Amino acid sequence: MKLADCHNIDDFRTLAKRRLPWPVFDYIDGAADDEITKARNTSAFDEVDLVPDVLAGVGSIDTSCTIMGRTSALPLMLSPTALQRAFHRDGERAVAQAAEKFGVWFGISSLATHSIEEIAALTGGPKLFQLYVHKDEGLNASLIQRCREAKFDALALTVDTIVSGKRERCLRSGFTTPPRFTARALWSYATRPRWTLDYVFGPKFRLPNLDRHVQEGTGKAVSIQDYFNTMLDTKMDWGTAERIRQDWGGTFALKGVMSAADARRAVEIGADAIWISNHGGRQLDGSRAPFDQLREIFDAVGGEIEIILDGGVRRGTHALKSLAGGATAASGGRLYLYALAAAGQAGVERAIGILKEEIERGMRLMGVTSVAQLTPERLRWR
Fold it and tell me: What is the 3-state secondary structure (H, E, C) of the chain?
């Protein structure tokens, strides 16, 4: 199977599985406990149908929209995800360059493998930083200051990771950051020589946004579950979020909001946007899917705050359903991580291009010429 054989996101997943050692693939692909919520994140879109109009004169359509003050060519964002150089040697650099080429938002994680400053110098496209609140207050202040100086467009505070979900695939494989060659997985690493050679002989694996403050930034191997459970601040509350918003002083979002009550609190503290997200099903298994919660949250705060629907997006029609349900845009991580793992920047560009074509085709078949016309009347709930 080659990159040219990938025609949807699931095809990229198949190619990524062939090219990655199984502990690394399972880190991308896996989720918490029984992975019920991860599966529901995508299947929730099947509960509604799009209602098309015909003879609508769709020779010219406009897929652009404004997200958090910046124009985006598509109503689609690339969610921030950690450890990207574990999946391909170019990591966040490849994603940043692909996002800029297509004129869409992307984000980097506190646990990114390229620095805030490097990514800022690489692209002038819209970009956000995903902040994990650490127990080390000096680290938190440093990350915010560095993002301000690098002129990031927005800060997204992740609010659903005060402890780690139980990621059983990672427990079985022994996956750590940086990845270790365990005896159990040695054959998998040996039979993926391209990945293994890039990892061994490429630049040293680092978490450069952390390495001035914690050992885990300098190459000390640790599981993600242990990192979250020992390094992140379990006391984080609404007061913490409000202080971070004030310290940052720019466009501010909360990532991980899943209830109407929390959406209302986000409005009250002055957040500019919320990401309806369950962390890709990697935290609380058995929770609702973001799309399941969209209508309830939109009814509570629609028009008062921007709403990003994050999770389970695999098709352009999923983005269209999100917008018709009240979201400003749709976003996802695995939708480009599989492609990054499969083929680096070329893979990410092909994945975005496929989703772009699906969005454009879907709009034409629905008889809409702009994303503003994707209103609730375009959906029917089963």
Answer: CCHHHCCCHHHHHHHHHHHCCHHHHHHHHCCCCCCHHHHHHHHHHHHEEECCCCCCCCCCCECCEEECCEEECCCEEECCCCCHHHCCCCHHHHHHHHHHHHCCCEEEECCCCCCHHHHHHHCCCCEEEEECCECCHHHHHHHHHHHHHCCCCEEEEECCCCCCCCCHHHHHHCCCECCCCCCCCHHHHHCCHHHHHHHHHCCCCCCCCCCCCCHHHCCCCECHHHHHHHHECCCCCHHHHHHHHHHHCCCEEEEEECCHHHHHHHHHCCCCEEEECCHHHCCCCCCCCHHHHHHHHHHHHCCCCEEEEECCCCCHHHHHHHHHCCCCEEEECHHHHHHHHHHHHHHHHHHHHHHHHHHHHHHHHHCCCEHHHCCHHHEEEC
**Residue 278, both tokens:** 């369950």
pLDDT in tens, the chain (382 residues): 899 999 999 999 999 999 999 999 999 999 999 999 999 999 999 999 999 999 999 999 999 999 999 999 999 999 999 999 999 999 999 999 999 999 999 999 999 999 999 999 999 999 999 999 999 999 999 999 999 999 999 999 999 998 999 999 999 998 988 888 888 888 898 899 999 999 888 888 889 999 777 654 455 677 777 888 888 989 999 999 999 999 999 999 999 999 999 999 999 999 999 999 999 999 999 999 999 999 999 999 999 999 999 999 999 999 999 999 999 999 999 999 999 999 999 999 999 999 999 999 999 999 999 999 999 999 999 8
Q: What is the CA radius of gyration of the chain?
A: 20
Report how many domains make up the chain: 1
The range of the structural domain enclosing residue 302 comes to: 3-381
Q: CATH number for the domain including 171?
A: 3.20.20.70
Longest dimension (CA), the chain: 62
Q: Which sequence positions are flagged as catalytic?
A: 279
